[in-house]
Amino acid sequence: MPAPHASTTPEEAARAAAGPIDLEVFAANLARMMEEGGRAMAAYLRPREDGRIKDEVAEDLADVAKTLGNVAEYWLADPQRTVEAQSRLIGGYLSLWSSALKKLSGKKARPVVEPGARDGRFVDPEWTSNPFFDALKQAYLLTANWAENMVEEAEIEPHTKHKAEFYVRQIASAVSPSNFVLTNPELLRTTLASNGANLVRGMKMLAEDIEAGGGDLKIRQTDNSKFRVGENLAVTPGKVIFQNELMQLIQYAPQTETVLETPVVIIPPWINKFYVLDLSPEKSFIRWAVANGLTVFMVSWVNPGPELAGKSFDDYMRDGVLTAFEVAKKACGTEQFHAVGYCVGGTMLAMTLAWLAAAGKDVGVRSTTFLTTQVDFTYAGDLKVFIDEEQVANLERKMLEAGVMEGRQMANAFNMLRANDLIWPYVVNNYLKGQAPFPFDILYWNADSTRLPAANHSFYLRNCYLDNRLAQGSLMLAGKMLKLKDIDMPIYSVATREDHIAPAASVFLGVQLFGNSGRFVLAGSGHIAGVINPPERGKYQYWTGGPPTGKLDDWIARAEMHPGSWWPDWLDWIERQDGRRVPGRVPGTGPFPAIEDAPGSYVKVKA
């Protein structure tokens, strides 16, 4: 089929590509779409009408308006600044107008603005070849870039600026022309080619996802029907050998005749489920560690209900971390163990080690590994947008009523950090194209959220994100003042270069506070993919260098890059701490009889 003439309208181009429209079928599908839309609206309104959900949209919009109002005040306070801002935007539009006229007349025209290299929203050829869509795309990018520059250049209070930057990015992502049928060439073609059947399927999925979210939209990011925890996720053989009201402790079965004498105890975050480290077998860090001769213990946190609202950080440390340490040692008949903490689990591990040092207790920690762990929250990234006194106090009031923080709230916050990757592509694919997403184990885990006890979560937000007391050496936990410099042992710390949750600069700054900064490793990719990177896949890379001192960029400039996964480097480091080997230990045969098969029952509880 020949390319559309330059004067072809978007509708004509789409119709030419799709073939003739069956108006009767199209009208029938529009009616069905409206019917499904009514079902979606009912699913949204029903829990609000009966009081199960309190609508907080007005509160959120008020904070957005207040924050962006501070930016507007700065620019409007000086007439000259106002004129400069307006001139900059109008000048961009005039350049675009000139470029669009050239393109309409059949001449070549250089784009006034182009999307970033990693921006996947405008990859369809018609965003460039069709003058209408090309102009629309550039007008959007000009406006979005201008708005972001206005915030960046505004001289306002730093936290307010950080929030304004975040809100402007969210708004810009939401209003992108790629998110609407009539302004997206691919969606237009799809709609015309299917006589609107895609919109019927999409609206049906929208209604289902709102119903699944109990009145809130729970965007499906993967085909959930393809995964079952304990069947094709979290299937590394092992036994639950201990449990209390806060956690189950899993001991994994050996896969080698002999194992390193010193076992490994892993403390995962309590804001996610542990099986991110035990996904499908080919991605499982736990399976790989066991296959390489390690005895591995994993804490599986409870998915708490309101009855555990009062469980504090002290409780999680004593009944979770410290209890796991003691059970693992007794199960193996050893005096020492290697401790591993991932994300918030690593933060809790660091607090526990500092508490032990302050209490003068030696529980036998042979070495510590921190995976994407922050202990200094100065550079904690966009999550700090949600953390100020007003927002934390508001969250505490809500948690006091419910006893817990619902998992979907934390999941939504994490998704918003990467809205153009984790929200809008799925809105377009699911609800506008009408296509079910592909099966992807990491995204299934990402949606399998947990609740958070009010007291524990409040302690963490206030003392880490809000006041940064742990880094300052002013954090009191269980009667002891915590000093990170008292943590003096072999340490292996992994940061990931594109981490949006525990930024590499934040992790790098934090490890310098320990008494022994240890071995710092920077892995490629982000918070999950950079950690879950099996050697067999040969993906990404990692950097090693000297002691983590000074600034991260300077350390990277001196560091050595290695292709592939950091896992073998870590295993070599673990073996250097203590290479003695003993026969493989069968879980459940020691002082702790098996309670049930791994992955246990706690991890299967849905939020």
Architecture overview:
β1 and β2 form a beta hairpin. The chain has 22 helices and 17 strands. It is 46% helix and 12% strand. It folds into 2 domains: 10-212, no CATH class; 238-422 and 435-604, 3-Layer(aba) Sandwich (Rossmann fold), CATH 3.40.50. It has an 11-stranded mixed beta sheet with strand order 15-14-13-12-7-6-4-5-2-1-17, with helices on both faces. α4 (79-104) packs antiparallel against α6 (131-153). The chain starts with 9 loop residues before the first helix and ends in a 10-residue tail after the last strand. With 607 residues, the protein is α/β, with parallel strands linked by helices. It has helices spanning 10-18, 23-49, 57-76, 79-104, 126-129, 131-153, 158-174, 185-193, 197-212, 285-291, 313-332, 344-359, 389-402, 407-417, 419-422, 424-432, 441-447, 454-466, 469-472, 504-511, 552-558, 567-577; strands at residues 238-243, 247-252, 258-260, 264-267, 296-301, 337-342, 365-371, 404-405, 452-453, 475-477, 480-482, 491-496, 519-523, 541-544, 560-563, 581-583, 596-597.
Describe this structure in a few short sentences.
The protein contains 22 helices and 17 strands.
At the third CATH level, what is the topology name of the largest domain?
Answer: Rossmann fold
What structural class do the secondary elements suggest? Answer: alpha/beta
Q: Approximately what portion of the residues adopt beta-strand conformation?
A: 5-15%
> What is the top-level CATH class of the largest domain?
Alpha Beta
Q: What's the name of the CATH homologous superfamily of the largest domain?
A: Alpha/Beta hydrolase fold, catalytic domain
- Helix count equals 22
- Which stretches of 5+ consecutive residues score pLDDT under 50? 1-12
- Helicity, as a percent range: 40-55%
* Biggest beta-sheet profile: 11 strands, mixed
Q: Specify the CATH architecture of the largest domain.
A: 3-Layer(aba) Sandwich
* Shape summary: globular
